[in-house]
């Protein structure tokens, strides 16, 4: 009997004792034993002529008394070979080896030994008959044996080491945390903007960006216990996530207004920040145009997790409750093939719309391109000439069937945009979130991209900021800043890496740019190096102009230009304003609370992204700047930000101050 057999037996549950079987087995064994004892000689090495079996009994008895050998059936099975071994030992000299094949080394047998062997064999036959008459209860297999039995034969059979390793595997709790799935998330990679010399590159041009998806993703990463992927951090989206009290325009004729502040840089005493805050015209709800909305919902198999389709359904229920009775809702789903769940339906039929949402079930692969085409056909069917026509795509971005290249989808969205149907994107879930594609679709569809990680975020995006998300007040909004080389040596735009435009794009109305919705706020921040500052990084040009022309009257630092189109227009309009010393404040504390808080958010985003300029600026310093500028916080967004800064500091290994 091997160690493997003993290990298995030690884990078995013994059957109920059978008195009759036990009595028969013991009687047969004792009869054989006494018969052999009467004819045995004194064994070698025993001067007193005592029985050698006494030593064996001292070893055997404790084993027989062990719990795992209790019970008649098990006793019977073990006594049979044991009795035979004892008999052989008493009639022979030599050693007995208990291995897998139980070999007995014997001396040449004489006539007397043969006689004894016949007696032993007769006793063994009698024991077998007694054992066959007993019917032991089935033994309950242990958890390890069940696991081994389920293994392929090459794994289920092996030595003791193999069995022990399989036992450890089998004993793992069934509710243990599963191995994390492969992370297939994709982000649009863009390096932080470099420091540029005003002498060689005095003009900076970029498109407006009112998306907030990056902030939600960063928040989810930190709350999950990890620092976010640097590529997932878009600083401008973190900054623009928060509502600021910038002064807005008086009428819709001028759709937005700019507030400019120049202040010292908290993380570099030798530079300054040029802070631009834009506020869009806040449309009165009664004046909002009718909306024709198509919910394009991904119900593929990848959406079958609580933070995807179930959360998506709850989010759209919130939006339906916000719509006016005159609005129209359609629902298209896609998974393998696109399907129309709800034809264009008046929003006043809320129960019908909500029932259609509640009935959505996940399954299949993702035919995203086909779903988008079907959604656009429905949008055209219910087109509102004087209203808002928008497809709202809700997905984790896993487009794996059909025309799935980013460029193909971008061309499809751009073509439909020209027909007056825009596209907004709502991202859900983690693991295969395609942020790069979501950004591309939203930018080409004149829409916004949001990431919904909680129901509270759905409330913020689809209810509290519904007007800004659904109703544009200006299209193709572009910004251009020209710096005065007599006052500014260098500059660096913080964020907007994916929104950069060429200088000539500013005046080209064919070049697409971001839209601004009702009440939207856009914030842009430059870090600038004044002339003569020790922070200048670029050497002067040997052959360039040594002295710039005198600055314009009023001490101009820069010149700001903004260009946009009306929602139904094709020709852009232009607004300009100089940035002068009158916009400068003496210290950080002299800036408004909103300016300081937005600067703290910008510092936080740069720190997470790994911008070298923020390398020596600690999370604790960012926290102090934000806490002092928390100001009014009716929805708790700023309090949440403070918590995220603390989490990031802890995850980065900074000591709490």
Structure description:
With 657 residues, this protein is α+β, with helices and mostly antiparallel strands. The protein is 36% helix and 20% strand. It has helices at 3-10, 19-38, 53-65, 72-91, 111-133, 143-150, 153-156, 160-170, 213-223, 235-239, 309-322, 350-358, 368-381, 406-417, 435-444, 455-464, 466-470, 593-609, 619-628, 637-651, and strands at residues 96-97, 103-104, 196-197, 203-207, 256-265, 268-280, 291-298, 328-335, 337-346, 388-395, 422-428, 449-452, 472-483, 488-494, 514-517, 521-530, 556-565, 573-580. A 6-stranded mixed sheet has the order 9-8-7-10-11-12, sandwiched between helices. A hairpin with a 5-residue loop joins strand 1 (96-97) and strand 2. Helix 14 (406-417) packs parallel to helix 15. The radius of gyration is 41 Å and the shape is globular. The two termini are 66 Å apart. The model is unreliable at 42-51, 93-110 and 126-180 (pLDDT under 50).
Structural topology:
Layout: H1 3-10, H2 19-38, H3 53-65, H4 72-91, E1 96-97, E2 103-104, H5 111-133, H6 143-150, H7 153-156, H8 160-170, E3 196-197, E4 203-207, H9 213-223, H10 235-239, E5 256-265, E6 268-280, E7 291-298, H11 309-322, E8 328-335, E9 337-346, H12 350-358, H13 368-381, E10 388-395, H14 406-417, E11 422-428, H15 435-444, E12 449-452, H16 455-464, H17 466-470, E13 472-483, E14 488-494, E15 514-517, E16 521-530, E17 556-565, E18 573-580, H18 593-609, H19 619-628, H20 637-651
Parallel strand pairs: 7-8, 7-10, 10-11, 11-12
Antiparallel strand pairs: 1-2, 3-14, 4-13, 5-6, 6-16, 8-9, 13-15, 13-17, 14-16, 17-18
């Amino acid at each position: 009997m091997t160690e493997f057999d003993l290990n298995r037996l030690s884990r078995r549950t013994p059957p109920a004792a059978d008195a009759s079987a036990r009595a028969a087995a013991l009687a047969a064994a004792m009869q054989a034993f006494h018969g052999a004892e009467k004819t045995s000689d004194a064994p070698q090495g025993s001067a007193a002529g005592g029985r050698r079996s006494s030593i064996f009994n001292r070893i055997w008895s404790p084993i027989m008394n062990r719990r795992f050998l209790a019970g008649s059936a098990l006793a019977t099975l073990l006594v049979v070979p044991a009795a035979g071994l004892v008999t052989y030992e008493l009639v022979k000299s030599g050693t007995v080896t208990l291995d897998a094949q139980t070999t007995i080394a014997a001396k040449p047998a004489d006539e007397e030994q043969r006689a004894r062997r016949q007696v032993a064999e007769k006793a063994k036959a009698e024991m077998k008959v007694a054992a066959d008459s007993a019917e032991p209860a089935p033994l309950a297999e242990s958890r390890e044996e069940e696991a081994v039995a389920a293994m392929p034969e090459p794994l289920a059979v092996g030595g003791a080491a193999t069995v022990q390793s399989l036992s450890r595997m089998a004993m793992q709790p069934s509710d243990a945390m599963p191995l994390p799935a492969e992370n297939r998330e994709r982000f649009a990679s863009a390096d932080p903007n470099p420091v540029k010399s005003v002498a060689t590159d005095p003009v900076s041009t970029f498109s407006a960006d009112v998306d907030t998806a990056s902030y939600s993703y960063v928040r989810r990463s930190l709350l999950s216990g990890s620092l976010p992927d640097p590529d997932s951090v878009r600083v401008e989206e973190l900054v623009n996530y928060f509502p600021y009290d910038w002064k807005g325009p008086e009428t819709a004729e001028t759709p937005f207004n700019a507030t400019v502040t120049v202040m010292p840089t908290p993380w570099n005493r030798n530079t300054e920040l040029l802070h631009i805050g834009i506020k869009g015209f806040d449309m009165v709800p009664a004046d909002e145009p009718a909306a024709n909305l198509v919910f394009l919902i991904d119900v593929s198999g990848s959406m079958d997790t609580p933070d995807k389709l179930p959360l998506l359904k709850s989010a759209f229920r919130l939006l339906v409750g916000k719509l006016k009775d005159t609005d129209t809702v359609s629902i298209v789903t896609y998974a393998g093939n696109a399907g129309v769940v709800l034809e264009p339906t008046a929003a006043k039929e809320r129960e019908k719309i909500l029932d259609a949402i509640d009935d959505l079930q996940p399954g299949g692969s993702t035919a995203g391109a086909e779903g988008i085409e079907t959604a656009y056909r429905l949008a055209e069917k219910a087109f509102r000439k004087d209203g808002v026509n928008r497809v709202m795509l809700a997905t984790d971005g896993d487009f794996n069937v059909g025309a799935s290249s980013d460029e193909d989808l971008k061309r499809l969205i751009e073509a439909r945009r020209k027909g007056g149907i825009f596209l907004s994107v709502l991202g859900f879930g983690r693991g295969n979130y395609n942020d790069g594609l979501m950004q591309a679709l939203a930018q080409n569809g004149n829409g916004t991209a949001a990431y919904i990680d909680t129901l509270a975020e759905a409330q913020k995006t689809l209810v509290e900021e519904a007007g800004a998300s659904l109703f544009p007040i200006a299209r193709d909004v572009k910004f251009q800043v020209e710096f005065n080389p007599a006052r500014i040596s260098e500059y660096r735009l913080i964020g907007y890496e994916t929104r950069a435009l060429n200088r000539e794009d500013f005046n080209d109305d064919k070049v697409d740019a971001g839209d601004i919705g009702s009440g939207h706020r856009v914030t842009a921040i430059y870090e600038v190096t004044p002339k003569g500052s020790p922070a200048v990084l670029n050497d002067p040009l040997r052959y360039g102009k040594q002295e710039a022309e005198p600055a314009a009257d009023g001490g101009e630092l820069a010149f700001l230009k903004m260009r946009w189109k009306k929602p139904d227009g094709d020709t852009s309009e232009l607004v300009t304003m100089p940035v002068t010393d009158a916009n400068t404040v003496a210290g950080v504390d002299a800036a408004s609370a909103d300016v300081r808080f937005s600067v703290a958010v910008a510092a936080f985003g740069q720190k997470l992204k790994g911008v070298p300029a923020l390398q020596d600026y600690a999370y604790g310093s960012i926290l102090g700047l934000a806490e002092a500028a928390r100001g009014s916080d009716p929805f708790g967004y700023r309090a949440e930000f403070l918590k995220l800064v603390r989490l990031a500091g802890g995850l980065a290994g900074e000591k709490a101050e």
